[in-house]
Design brief:
The structure holds two protein chains of two kinds. Chain A contains twelve helices and nine strands. Chain A is mainly alpha-helical. Chain A has a domain at 66-151 and 288-418: MetI-like (MetI-like fold). Chain A is extended, with a radius of gyration of 30 Å. The N and C termini of chain A lie far apart (61 Å). By secondary structure, chain B is mostly helical. Chain B is 71% helix and 1% strand. The chains are: A mainly alpha, B mainly alpha.
């Protein structure tokens, strides 16, 4: 007869921390954490010591002091008496503007170039290959300064537009002027304007909301909603009866007529730029620096997007296209219903990282003097206040927030597209 | 009726295909003028190419190679009857300054040193890149190269790089001695500690002592004299070289089950990838000295290299993570079933395959970093772009724009294009059939 005895009760030994896989991971993590905290503490104590030696105390009070410098390209009103915080806000908005414009043009350009590179046309596909290889193998900073140089050196000065027999002319029926000081385009004006609403009083974060714009957006939104409701109704009728009522004229009317009436009521007209004295007045002024940055970032990123789009379309097996053709689909339907939904799965993730790169590369604005976040907060504000620790860390945190929110939004979209997957 | 045949009994003579289907005309019909859309595109493209070339070729075709100043260029062109701002390029500036654009202000007597350093870089990389063509023993040279290169570029006493190398040797010896008797983990921790103590405390005095007894060394060259393409290459190569091991560690950390380690790695990677390189360079130029102990003062190129390394290692970690994720799970399970522990599995099975898969990604990270080195001109270093500002401010060449930018763009283009072609070639060569 055998007796079963319990295994001897294990007592915890210190060596188990190293030899026993159950505890070892704990040991590693605690060692890593201690190391990290030591490093952090070391950095903190060094920083504190150095700042004390320099007689500086970390504080963000400088943000409330008057900035004392001007920002020529801006979305909100600003003058040199405003605070550093407002200057940083204007800079942030400038960063967002150029990143947004850049993403849109880079996508349009990139997608068309990527598709054209797959064209059967030998000249076109080779030309696009040359474009892609030229733009992505040269640093983006070089493109920015290069396009800036083109804008300054080759465009006519405003005085070339003057006189009886000017050497330069405005384009598009005297509405757009391209000069070496920037591009002037017509601006929308309202003669029966509903005025602006001033929010947040006189604080650094104050901003105006144009009621006209708000009204237009509301009406447009409602019209689009109506148009989509009308199309859904047509879908329903088609499902029930098999006949699809003609909808495009009603939908077009729904979208165009209310907005047109509203614009007429507001007295919408365009304010054209005009040459007065030595410069153009009126209209919207895009400065050289903005144009150079925008163009360079779009052209550079478009080269990368073109490659992504090309790879995405090539990743769809030829059998898919042939099967769709065998079902009797026309080429544009094949593209829309079969190839694109599958290609998007491949295209979107690298596209996100390219948008992020574009947003981050917009910080190179400092090379051409476009006052974005880097130019204001990490540029002139840093130089004037001498607060390098606060300004640089603040700038980094803002960029980090921008990057994380772009990737967050795009990941949501990516997950929606991904649902197509089996 | 039997002699009536409905079947042709003799072959017809072969006819030549229609002239519109073969030869140049056929090719053009198939490739250029398939429909009205394609024809329009072709005509537009050809017109576009014509206009660009018609503007560029006469400008570039200008016999100003020997001119010593922009005024002289204008004079030569005016003698040819070519007037105006865009009448012709002034290539004299390239002849005058191309050496500077490559070497910066590096003393011209020692030009052989950076040249040798970059040629030897090719030798050091060859066992990795052309493993089928060179002897495998050469990998020893690859190991020694990281200590050779700084010595060649910066010069100074030979003992400093040797003592840094000695740190690795000592640390490895300690690791072997402890891991044979006790646990590997303990050995690793002790070895790292010993190495750091050696480098931070003991190395300096010993190297100084040895340099006093046996002074072998080369003329030291200060970082301030680095410039041009050589500076870009130095920053790029050193940062990528250091970022590779850091990137591997970060990638493994990101994949690990250890919660704290994983959080630290993810935090670091996402932080670095979320901010622009220029902010990191500002940290290098303004903040890094504040973070270091009082009195530390290392020069600006070192600081830039540190930040570029951190930047590159976050991207490298993501590339290697891609390589790790591309490996089939069977490889991990196979390693487990052989009874290999974590590090053995990584060293013998996972890493060789994962790194092989990620070589194209590593090359493209390098291309990206190499292009991004132009950003150092913003914080005042003299890379080609920074030098070009200096040259344009010079009295002789004040007003030169396109020739300089074009030349710099061409330099970068040649480097980046050849590297990207090579990485494509590698991708094809390394394709093992399964993905």
């Amino acid at each position: 007869m055998t007796t079963l005895t319990d295994p001897p009760q294990e007592s915890f030994r210190l060596s188990q921390l190293i030899y026993d896989t159950r505890y070892r991971s704990m040991t590693i993590q605690i060692v890593a954490l201690i190391g990290f905290l030591l490093l952090l503490g070391w950095l903190f104590s060094n920083t504190a010591q150095n700042l004390a030696d320099l007689g500086k105390e970390p504080s963000f009070r400088f943000l409330g002091e008057p900035a004392g410098y001007d920002i020529n390209q801006r979305l909100l009103d600003y003058n040199s008496q405003d605070t550093h915080l407002r200057a940083a806000l204007i800079g942030l908005l400038n960063t967002l503007v150029v990143a947004f414009l850049g993403c849109i043009t880079a996508t349009i350009l990139g997608v068309s170039i990527g598709v054209l590179r797959l064209s059967d046309n030998w000249v076109v596909s080779k030309l696009m290959a040359i474009y892609v290889e030229t733009f992505r193998n040269v640093p983006v900073l070089l493109w920015i300064v290069f396009i800036m140089a083109i804008m300054i050196e080759t465009m006519p000065a405003p005085r070339a537009f003057k006189g009886e027999n000017p050497s330069a002319h405005m384009m598009l029926n005297d509405s757009v002027a391209v000069t070496n000081r920037g591009v002037y385009i017509p601006e929308p004006l309202f003669s029966n304007s509903l005025n602006d609403v001033h929010l947040l009083g006189a604080s650094s974060l104050r901003f105006d909301v144009s009621v006209d714009l708000l009204a237009i957006m509301l009406v447009l939104g409602a019209s689009f909603w109506g148009a989509s409701w009308y199309r859904k109704r047509a879908d329903k009728i088609q499902e029930m009866t098999g006949d699809r009522p003609k909808t495009w004229h009603v939908r077009l009317g729904l979208i165009v007529i209310p907005t047109a009436i509203l614009l007429y009521a507001l007295g919408f007209h365009l304010g054209y730029p005009e040459l007065k004295g030595f410069n153009f007045k009126g209209g919207t002024h895009f400065r050289n620096s903005l144009i150079a940055l925008w163009l360079a970032l779009s052209l550079y990123t478009a080269a990368f997007i073109a490659e992504i789009v090309r790879a995405g379309i090539l990743a769809i097996s030829h059998g898919q296209t042939e099967a769709a053709a065998a079902l009797g689909m026309r080429p544009n339907k094949i593209m829309k219903l079969v190839v694109l939904p599958q290609a998007l799965r491949v295209i979107i993730p690298p596209m996100i990282s390219n948008y992020l790169n574009l947003a981050k590369n917009s910080s190179l604005a400092i090379a051409v003097g476009y006052m974005d976040l880097t130019g204001t907060l990490m540029g002139i504000t840093l130089n004037q206040t001498g607060r390098e620790l606060e300004t640089v860390l603040m700038t980094m945190m803002i960029y980090l927030a921008i990057s994380l929110s772009i990737s967050g939004v795009m990941n949501v979209y990516n997950n929606r597209v991904k649902l197509v997957e089996r | 009726m039997s002699d009536v045949s409905f079947v042709r009994t003799e072959m017809l003579v072969e006819k030549a295909p229609p002239a519109t289907e073969v030869g140049v005309i056929g090719w053009m019909r198939h490739n250029l003028f398939t429909g009205w859309l394609n024809s329009t595109l072709t005509v537009l493209s050809v017109l576009g190419i014509y206009f660009v070339l018609a503007a560029l070729v006469p400008w570039a075709w200008s016999p100003t190679w020997s001119a010593a100043s922009l005024k002289e260029c204008r004079g030569i062109l005016a003698d040819l009857g070519r007037e105006g701002h865009f009448s012709g390029a002034c290539w004299g500036v390239i002849r005058d300054r191309w050496v500077q654009l490559f070497m910066g202000f590096y003393p011209s007597d020692y030009y052989w040193r950076p040249i040798a350093a970059f040629l030897l870089l090719g030798v050091a990389l060859s066992p990795v890149l052309f493993s089928d063509k060179v002897p495998a023993k050469l990998i020893w040279f690859t190991g020694l190269y990281p200590f050779l290169m700084p010595w060649l570029l910066w010069g100074g006493s030979v003992w400093v790089p040797l003592m840094v190398l000695a740190g690795f040797v000592i640390s490895y010896g300690v690791y072997r001695a402890i891991s044979d008797r006790m646990s590997e983990l303990l050995a690793l921790i002790v070895a790292v500690l010993v190495a750091f103590i050696w480098w931070l405390v003991l190395m300096g005095p010993i190297a100084g002592f040895l340099a006093n007894i046996i002074p072998i060394g080369m003329e030291a060259v200060g970082s301030r004299q680095f410039g041009g393409m050589m500076l870009s290459l130095t920053i790029g190569v050193v940062a990528i070289g250091f970022s590779l091991p850091i990137g591997i560690v970060l990638a493994l950390g990101r994949q690990s089950d250890l919660l704290i380690v994983k959080a630290l790695c993810v935090g670091f990677i996402e932080f670095i990838r979320g901010v622009p390189l220029i902010t990191l360079l500002f940290v290098a130029s303004t903040l890094l000295n504040i973070f270091m102990p009082p009195g530390t003062n290392f020069d600006i190129i070192m600081r830039v290299i540190i930040m570029a390394t951190l930047f590159a290692s976050a991207y490298m970690a993501e590339v290697i993570r891609g390589g790790l994720a591309a490996l089939p799970t069977g490889q991990y399970e196979g390693a487990d079933s052989l009874g290999l522990n974590y590090w053995q599995a990584q060293r013998l099975i996972i890493m060789p395959q994962a790194l092989k898969i990620s070589i194209p990604g590593i090359v493209s990270t390098f291309i990206g970093l190499f292009k991004d080195t132009t950003l150092v001109s913003v914080i005042g270093l003299l890379d080609p772009l920074g030098l070009s500002n200096g040259i344009r401010a010079n009295a002789e060449w004040n007003g030169v724009v396109w020739e300089l930018y074009g030349f710099i763009a061409l330099m970068f283009w040649v480097f980046c294009f050849s590297m990207s072609r090579y990485s494509m070639h590698l991708e094809r060569k390394l394709q093992t059939g399964h993905r």
